[in-house]
């Protein structure tokens, strides 16, 4: 029973860290006021995303900036379209390195990343 509670607390902690990180990046684009940040927190399926959508002059934008997923005891980073090392940000917020997977790197190349392979 204690293990289940511990895993639930870890999951809640990971959810908060991811949500806070996404909120930090969900800022308006100053020179493109018609493009909106779309924050998506699907806690049932453990998917957390930041999208930018909208029009800039004649061009429509629909772009994923960040995509995280909690799978088991690990945080998978599926996409990082920022200049920030979001893996490092997770570490700085108490997530252990062995619980971070860079899902956007091919499985055969992940070992070089220093993070978890799967």
Protein described:
- This protein is of the alpha+beta class.
- Helix content is 26%, strand content 35%.
- The chain is built from two helices and five strands, in the order αββββαβ.
- It has helices at 2-25, 86-92; strands at 35-42, 47-56, 59-71, 74-80, 100-102.
- The protein has a five-stranded mixed beta sheet, with helices on one face.
- It is globular and about 45 Å long.
- The two termini are 26 Å apart.
Q: Tell me what portion of residues adopts beta-strand conformation.
A: 25-35%
Biggest sheet details:
5 strands, mixed
Overall pLDDT confidence: 90
Kindly, what is the distance between the CA atoms of the first and last residues, rounded to a whole number of angstroms? Answer: 26 Å
Strand order of the largest sheet: 1-2-3-4-5
The computed structural class is alpha+beta
Q: How many strands in all?
A: 5
Provide a count of the helices: 2
The low-confidence runs, each spanning 5 or more residues with pLDDT under 50, are: none
Gyration radius (Cα, Å) is 16 Å
Bin the helical content.
Answer: 25-40%
The coarse overall form would be globular
How would you spell out the order of helices and strands? HEEEEHE
């Amino acid at each position: 029973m204690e293990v289940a509670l511990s895993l639930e607390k870890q999951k809640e902690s990971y959810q908060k860290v991811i949500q806070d990180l996404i909120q930090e990046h969900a800022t308006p684009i100053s020179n493109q006021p018609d493009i909106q940040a779309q924050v998506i927190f699907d806690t049932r399926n453990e998917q957390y995303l930041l999208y930018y959508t909208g029009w800039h002059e004649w061009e429509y934008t629909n772009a994923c900036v960040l995509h995280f997923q909690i799978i088991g005891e690990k945080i998978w980073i599926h996409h990082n379209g920022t200049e920030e090392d979001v893996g490092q940000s997770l570490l700085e917020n108490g997530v252990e390195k062995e619980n971070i997977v860079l899902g956007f790197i091919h499985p055969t190349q992940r070992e070089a990343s220093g993070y978890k392979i799967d």
